[in-house]
Amino acid sequence: MTKLQKLLEIEGYTNVTELLAACITDSVSPAICCNPDCNYTAEMEPDQDRGFCEECRTNSMKSALVLAGVI
Ligand SMILES: [Zn+2]
User: What is the pTM of this model?
Assistant: First the structure.
């Protein structure tokens, strides 16, 4: 399972299109930590690709839009 798929599951979306539509209307995007053992999620800017993970204390958060390759 990719981080994007994991994020969809955690956020309760059934597919990427649904998530992207929500991001566009909200101007925030769910983001997930990309470290292998961490699935911390938070809402971040849609273009965030190195957000701070509260769990890992590293800049490893990527937004759904970045993971989906939209930005
Ligand atoms: Zn993390």
Answer: 0.89
From the CA of 14, how far away is ligand 1's center (Å)?
23
- Reported as a single tens digit per residue, the pLDDT across 12-71 is 999 989 988 887 787 899 999 999 999 999 999 999 999 999 999 999 999 999 999 977
Distance (Å) from CA 58 to ligand 1 centroid: 7
- Distance (angstroms) between ligand 1 centre and the Cα of 42 equals 10
Tell me how far the alpha carbon of residue 18 lies from the centroid of ligand 1, in angstroms: 25
Cβ atoms of 38 and 20 within 8 Å: the answer is no
15: DSSP letter: S
Q: What is the side-by-side strand order in the sheet with 61-63?
A: 41-44, 29-33, 61-63
Q: How many residues does the chain have?
A: 71
Domain boundaries, the chain: 3-67
